[in-house]
Every structure is written in C-alpha cells, then in structure tokens.
Amino acid sequence: MLATMGYITPEITGKLPGFLSPSAGLKFADIPNGLGAISKVPAAGWAQIAAYMAFCEVSQDQSPGTLAAAGDFGFKVLTSSDPAEKEKKLSAEIANGRLSMMAIIGMFFQDGLTGSAWGDWALYTASPLR
C-alpha cells in the first residue's frame, strides 16, 4: 500500500524542495517519478534506505513468545479488542493489500511500456494491437 501511495503522491502533491544530494547537485525535482528514479538515486541514498530498513527490523524485540513476534504491537486504533471485529478488519486489510499489490504491478507495467508512471499509451508504438 505504501508503494502504491509513494508512486502516486509525487505526481499529485509535487516534490520536496531542496537537494537530495547537495554534493552531487541533485535536487528532488530532478528525480523522475516511477521506475526512472531507481537509476537516478545515488548509491549512498540506497545505502541509507537499506540501513533504515535494517534498523526498523532489529530495533524491536521479535523473539518467539513476544507479542511483536505475532505482529501485535499494542496499537489498537485500526484493529479491535473484539475478536469478530478484529477478524473483519484484518480480512479487509488483506483485501486492500492485495488490491494495492495489483495496482503497483499495473503501474510498473505501464511505466515499463510507456516510460511514464502515468503513461500515454499513444507513446507505446510497439503495441501488437497497432
């Protein structure tokens, strides 16, 4: 779901002001949306992303027998203490997660064929339907 929103948000709200990499003179506005961004972000930026992901994984005690191991971090705003209500909300979350996975794959596919996250299919001249 975060990937889908991350793909859409820069198109709607615009990009952050300032520099992504001041030493390289690379501004956030210089980074294209979609798959084109992968090759534009410096290696140090990818290293920072990987380091933050690793921090998130190891900062919580998820040893067997803990609530965190079961994915329960005590945050009940979106879930419920009532088992029936919790099951209903978790089922909805799974359905929404599956929908967003299909959405991001569709956006990747469109971006790969047309060169734009919001691709103009008129630019896709290799279509077998033409």
From TrEMBL:
Keywords: Chloroplast, Plastid. It comes from the Eukaryota. Its main location: plastid. Gene3D superfamilies: Chlorophyll a/b binding protein domain. This is Chloroplast light harvesting complex protein. It is found in: Plastid, Chloroplast. GO terms for cellular component: chloroplast.
